[in-house]
Amino acid sequence: MQHISVIGAGTMGNGIAHVFAQHNYSVSLVDVSAPALEKALATIQQNLDRQLAREAITAEVKAQTLQNISTHTSLPEGVKNASLVVEAATENSELKLKIFRELDQHAPAAAILATNTSSISITRIAAATKRPEKVIGMHFMNPVPVMKLVEIINGYATAPEVTTAITALSEKLHKVPCVVNDYPGFIANRILMPMINEAICSLYEGVAGVSEIDTVMKLGMAHPMGPLQLADFIGLDVCHSILQVLHDGFGNPKYAPCPLLVNMVTAGYLGVKSGEGFYKYTKGSKELVVSERFK
Ligand code: NAD
């Protein structure tokens, strides 16, 4: 695989483009929004500077990485030479189905079409194309340049040679691939999201406060971050929509999003991205401050 196209230049898309480009793949980064592309390039540059300062890369690698990335607002233009497309656009099923119909039309017939979706069915996305055997989940973790895992998800029709190719490619990026099957939430979010939801329910029912819940899980279970802080980091809207996928997919009430989570999302308290969730975030400060609402 030589040429990689990444669709969506947000939080995940810029990280995915960064990692491929750093390992010498030529990358076309595609977004409908030109400002998003500019922001993505600025973020990649900043992250490369950080790697350079830590002596994790050389100045030559930084320059080559930036040179390996081109940006496009036109999808047909951005995918015309792709051997692999990794879709990392907004988590919305109708949008992803539309993008995959377009990718099927404009990417070379031999290209593998991967999605970085956190929870949407790979089988359903694949069924929107005429090449379901070449569609697969390639689920990177945030922040992509730092996190080792790639959860690889086989759709119902994914061909074994496609799984083998994506596994080998993940290893070339110095990531650790883990292959799983396509059921709601796959593995990462099927296990993580009920834990986060249970932490929110414990807060809602008054069992303990924000700091106590996160401290128990950090110090008691050796988690690097407590579940409420992690929920803020992921985005409470994202947690809510993944829980909804689990709830709808399994039809089991144990996955129902906690009413407190629903209220916070409805009110726009989404965590780090909106400035407040369980904690309050001030630009430039690394201090972890519990939101006034939970004191
Ligand atoms: P984001 O909101 O930061 O970025 C999404 C980008 O997609 C935006 O720049 C938007 O302009 C672009 N976009 C929307 N429609 C498009 C289209 N038709 N064509 C091209 N670009 C389009 O989202 P994100 O957090 O980067 O998430 C992207 C995907 O990665 C989602 O499927 C999400 O579930 C998954 N994911 C997110 C995380 C996380 O922690 N944020 C972790 C793992 C997986």
Structure description:
- 47% of the residues lie in helices and 15% in strands.
- It has two domains: 179 residues, 3-Layer(aba) Sandwich (Rossmann fold), CATH 3.40.50; 102 residues, N-(1-d-carboxylethyl)-l-norvaline Dehydrogenase, domain 2 (Orthogonal Bundle), CATH 1.10.1040.10.
- With 295 residues, the chain is of the alpha/beta class.
- A hairpin with an 8-residue loop joins β6 and β7.
- The strands form two sheets. Strands 3-2-1-4-5-6-7-8 form an eight-stranded mixed β-sheet, with helices on both faces. A two-stranded antiparallel ribbon has the order 9-10.
- The structure holds nicotinamide-adenine-dinucleotide.
- The site of nicotinamide-adenine-dinucleotide (NAD) has 24 residues, from α1 and α5.
- Keywords: NAD, Oxidoreductase.
- InterPro entries: 3-OHacyl-CoA_DH (IPR022694), 3-OHacyl-CoA_DH_CS (IPR006180), 3-OHacyl-CoA_DH_NAD-bd (IPR006176), 3HC_DH_C (IPR006108), 6-PGluconate_DH-like_C_sf (IPR008927), 6PGD_dom2 (IPR013328), NAD(P)-bd_dom_sf (IPR036291).
- Give the number of helices: 12
**Distance between the amino and carboxyl termini:** 53 Å
Query: What top-tier CATH class of the largest domain fits best?
Result: Alpha Beta
Main β sheet profile: 8 strands, mixed
CATH architecture of the largest domain: 3-Layer(aba) Sandwich
Give the domain tally: 2
CATH fold category name of the largest domain = Rossmann fold
Quick take:
GO terms for molecular function: NAD+ binding; oxidoreductase activity, acting on the CH-OH group of donors, NAD or NADP as acceptor. With 295 residues, the protein is α/β, with parallel strands linked by helices.
